[in-house]
Amino acid sequence: HDESTSNLVHHIQHCSPSDLKESCMIAAYTQGSQYTESKHRMKITLWVACRNCPFSIVEDPELLNIFLHLNAHCVTPGRRTVSRNIKEIFLLSRKNVGAILQASIQFIANIFAYPGKIHICAGGWTSPNVISFIGATAHWIIDGKMVTVILDYIK
Hints:
extended
């Protein structure tokens, strides 16, 4: 009965590490936090903007304490930096939002200019994992082909 680790050493020498998704996830977990100052700054900015929080919330002592508890090297941007970042994101995205709104206006104009009938349909359903949805769709015929558009849905 051999109690040495020679078999383990032999195994290590002849096996190559796997690049499987699971192996990468384990490696990332063992290395600890994936924190970067720029990623934290972006996430804080988006959180403040999306949740309509006051800019000063990023200087809240309890919130800062939570961040430092999670990562001792955490650098949280101040309220003025968050304000500037939100304005910068707005200026960068304004052109894209304008193009989306323009396309929506053109779409609506085409619907109202349509000479035929448009069928608006509402339906509700529940997914297998018991999440309920309700949706609205529009249907019409163009050149003998049915066109279907999802107007909106609510989860």
